[in-house]
Write a structure and sequence with these properties.
GO molecular function: transferase activity
Strand content: 15-25%
Order of helices and strands: EEHEH
Organism: Sphingobium terrigena
Keywords: Transferase
Protein name: N-acetyltransferase
Radius of gyration: 12 Å
Largest sheet: 3 strands, mixed
Strand order of the largest sheet: 1-2-3
Number of domains: 1
Structural class: alpha+beta
């Protein structure tokens, strides 16, 4: 599950969670990769308040063009 709020042309990711039994299998990364593909398709930006999503951007610099420079809220 990826929790987010949509505001001012951006998705503000607040929390990412997978069932404990599935942790460490890359499922959260696949979830966020899919979410970012949707963000890109819809021409939105991302505010990564969620620690996991922020870390995903650190590990995937090719996605950093999706980061909102002026974070709403």
């Amino acid at each position: 599950m990826a929790a987010y709020e949509r505001r001012d042309g951006a998705l503000i990711f607040t929390h990412t969670q997978v069932p404990e039994a599935l942790e460490g299998q890359g499922i959260a990364s696949k979830l966020i990769a899919g979410a970012l593909a949707d963000v890109r398709e819809k021409r939105l930006k991302v505010v990564p308040l969620c620690e996991f999503v922020a870390g995903y951007f650190d590990r995937h610099p090719e996605e950093q063009d999706l980061l909102a420079l002026d974070a709403p809220g």
